[in-house]
Amino acid sequence: MARNEPRMNYRRIACLSTEAVETLYLLGAEDCIAGISGFTTRPGRARKEKPKVSGFSSAKIERILAVTPDPAEVVRRAPDIIVGSWCGKKFRPEQVRARVGWEMIPAVRGDELHEIKSADILSPGPGAITEGLAQLERIVTRWAQAAKRP
């Protein structure tokens, strides 16, 4: 890593999607991966090197927590907006609000918990850009406009 490049603060990441695993390996950050999705295929060595902690829509919280990921990182980073999307399941803002310590997150306090349907943002192809990106833009624009009001 070059001297001026940002360092990752994450040390233990539970990757619940195959894309996250592939991306972290390509970035050379595979040592930060604590567990992977059982559907991971790339890179091939990930299936040999990392424990499987979830399926596509069958994440097991016990298996995820067993690899001791850094779950408090979201609280520390205090996002203003949280966007959820889950294939085949509805995003449940009440579950986000109920997480221990998350009541202090600005997005939770300001009720900036949003869902983008998986077909619009998670499916490969142009829909992620034509549908998902447009929805993200609307969410961020509304938040920015509300932040300007007295």
Quick gist of this model?
The protein folds into 2 domains: 13-66, no CATH class; 75-148, Nitrogenase molybdenum iron protein domain (Rossmann fold).
Q: CATH H-level name of the largest domain... which superfamily?
A: Nitrogenase molybdenum iron protein domain
> Over all CA atoms, what is the radius of gyration?
17 Å
Q: Hey, roughly how much beta strand do the residues contain? A: 5-15%
**Biggest pleated-sheet summary:** 3 strands, parallel
- How many β-strand runs? 5
Which shape, going by the Cα principal axes? Answer: globular
Helix content: 40-55%
CATH topology of the largest domain: Rossmann fold
Order of helices and strands: EHEHEHHEHHEHH
Strand order of the largest sheet: 1-2-3
Number of helices: 8
CATH architecture of the largest domain: 3-Layer(aba) Sandwich
Query: Which structural class is indicated by helix and strand composition?
Result: alpha/beta
- Measure the end-to-end span: 43 Å
Low-pLDDT windows of residues: none
Characterize the structure shown.
The chain is α/β, with parallel strands linked by helices and 150 residues long. It folds into two domains: 13-66, no CATH class; 75-148, Nitrogenase molybdenum iron protein domain (Rossmann fold, 3-Layer(aba) Sandwich), CATH 3.40.50.1980. The chain contains eight helices and five strands, in the order E-H-E-H-E-H-H-E-H-H-E-H-H. It has helices spanning 18-26, 44-49, 61-66, 73-77, 93-97, 106-109, 118-121, 127-148; strands at residues 13-14, 33-37, 52-54, 82-84, 113-115. A three-stranded parallel sheet has the order 1-2-3. The chain has a two-stranded parallel ribbon with strand order 4-5. The longest helix has 22 residues, at 127-148. The chain is globular and about 55 Å long. The protein starts with 12 loop residues before the first strand and ends with a helix. The mean pLDDT is 86.
